[in-house]
Amino acid sequence: MARPIPSGKRRGFTVIELLIVMAITGILVSMAVPIYQKSVIRAKESVLKQNLFTLRSVIDNYTYDKSRAPQSLQDLVTEGYLRQVPVDPMTSEADWVVIMEDSVTSVNQMEPGIFDVHSKSDKKSLEGTPYNEW
Description:
Elements: H1 15-66, H2 73-78, E1 97-100, E2 114-118
């Protein structure tokens, strides 16, 4: 059976107790946010590395199969090497910097094509290297 509360006393938290709890919560949140932001950046970097690896492999496969390099990334989709051009996680767009091969060293010297791809992002990675140099 519950005890009756005397009429002069009320149950609840004091302002000091609430302020202490809010201060502790603020400290914990301020420690967690940077860790979360770094984990998001690491995940994006991992996706970027995988997308670059895939694009470079597909460009090589296309070049070996067709005896000429692709003229655009859309050629890889048209010919069935990719379902779609992957999105650059750093810019959130499917827009990449394409490096065209030198006509002297190209497989088909009449039609030099894409040799390599890089990110369009001008930001630096957690390691300090620019994403557009990966």
